[in-house]
Design brief:
about 90 residues, mainly alpha, 3 strands
Amino acid sequence: MRETKGQTLVHCPQCGENKVKNHAPAIFQVLTLVGVLLCFTIVGIPFGIAFIIGAFMSKKSKARLKFTCQECKHSFKVEEQVYEEYSQYLKAN
């Protein structure tokens, strides 16, 4: 079985496995969805705008550098350069 480049970029420092998950995209999607839904009511518009701004701020936060190993459940952070390579690889494929 062929290993892809995305799997070779991020490894768990505790067990060495490459089965890792980044939670940043899910946080962005949830905040954006809640913001859009809140904007459907007049009273919710200010809160909706706040959620949407928070979603875009979460894309630039350091929390996006946090990964969780699917094997040992260890949470760890990677360097920004490694995350950028990982992100670029995922966008390309």
